[in-house]
Write a structure and sequence with these properties.
This protein is α+β, with helices and mostly antiparallel strands. It has 2 domains: 121 residues, Probable inorganic polyphosphate/atp-NAD kinase, domain 1 (Rossmann fold, 3-Layer(aba) Sandwich), CATH 3.40.50.10330; 169 residues, Tumour Suppressor Smad4 (Sandwich), CATH 2.60.200.40. The protein is 24% helix and 37% strand. Strands 6, 7, 8, 9, 10, 13, 14, 15 and 16 form a 9-stranded antiparallel sheet that branches. A 4-stranded parallel sheet has the order 2-1-3-4. The chain has a two-stranded antiparallel sheet with strand order 5-17. A hairpin with a 3-residue loop joins β11 and β12. The longest helix has 13 residues.
């Protein structure tokens, strides 16, 4: 079996040197340093097309994970592992015992598991899709992360403060699998396989990587004062419980949805303009290398959590 280590040299604050312990592995593992955006995805797809079984670990943040998953999607001969050395590292927050993700021995002794992904038109999303205020914030945060002394979470908070005062609802139409249409203005709209984004905000607290569903949530239009009170619980992932009687906040488990609008969507940190998004869950769509000692976080069922 082929084994690869792919390093994104601009992940986090950037590094031109190989991480400690990686240089010594060059005889056993093919080491590839990406040269530009999209290079990781192209490299992994080329490996997949050979038909040979391969384990591929990527060193980077959520953007690198996004590229890796899109490169590996459709190739059952590939397994993807992650060394989270980016700024936000939101995808791996969906696992327990995060320290082992940076432990070389734990990674190499890891086991292969199957997790779900979301197909968004012709792309794949492994963590979360956002439209509205959080998409605007994510776009601005990507630029703020480049500033010195600004962390992934810090960049998100700074961007949130700026976008908060510009907040307005996006005009969207949601078409469910059974044909139901919901139209309106929404400040926040999320479709998630994972729970976290923005360096740790929990927009989809009940999302689970391998349950066969996507967590779909919307937040309607709130005044600035109301939104200010909502944001802390949105960050902690308690907003659905705390505001469960608020009709402007909705949540449900879904398999498929179409979203129509004329705005932008951000998924796994990639921002695109759209007029129509067809989104569906792909069960067991990714073979993931789970480091020894790590687990997928268990999540309560929404109906149970909201009754507690």
């Amino acid at each position: 079996m082929k084994q690869y280590m792919i390093l994104n040299p601009v992940a986090g604050k950037g590094s031109k040197t190989l991480p400690k312990g990686l240089s010594a592995m060059a005889k056993e593992y093919e080491i590839y340093i990406t040269k530009e955006q999209g290079d990781c995805e192209r490299f992994i797809r080329a490996v997949g097309e050979t038909g040979e079984s391969a384990k591929i670990w990527v060193w980077g943040g959520d953007g690198t994970v996004h590229e890796a998953v899109n490169g590996a999607f459709g190739y059952p001969n590939l397994a993807i592992g992650v060394f989270p050395v980016g700024t936000g590292n939101d995808y791996v927050k969906n696992f327990g015992n995060l320290s082992v993700f940076l432990d070389m021995n734990a990674q190499l002794a890891g086991t292969e598991i199957c997790v779900d992904v979301m197909q968004v038109n012709d792309r794949v999303c492994v963590n979360m899709l956002n439209i509205g205020l959080d998409c605007q914030v994510a776009t601005m945060a990507a630029d703020m992360k480049k500033l010195p002394l600004v962390s992934g979470f810090g960049a998100y908070v700074l961007s949130l403060l700026v976008c908060f005062f510009r907040a307005k609802g996006e005009s969207l139409t949601f078409i469910h699998e059974d044909g139901r249409k919901i139209k309106g203005a929404f400040l926040l709209s999320t479709v998630g396989k994972g729970s976290f984004y923005g360096g740790g905000f929990q927009a989809a607290p009940y999302a689970k990587l391998d349950d066969g569903f996507m967590d779909f949530g919307t937040v309607g239009v709130f005044s600035k004062l109301e939104l200010m009170k909502l944001i802390p619980s949105y960050q902690k992932g308690t907003y659905l419980h705390k505001h469960q009687n608020e009709k402007r906040i909705q949540h449900q488990k879904i398999k498929k949805i179409t979203i129509e609008g004329n705005t932008y969507a951000s998924f796994d940190g990639e921002t695109i303009p759209f007029t129509k998004l067809d989104i569906k869950v792909v069960e067991k769509g990714l073979t993931f290398i789970l480091p020894k000692g790590a687990t997928i976080l268990e999540k309560p069922k929404p109906e149970e959590a909201l009754q507690s």
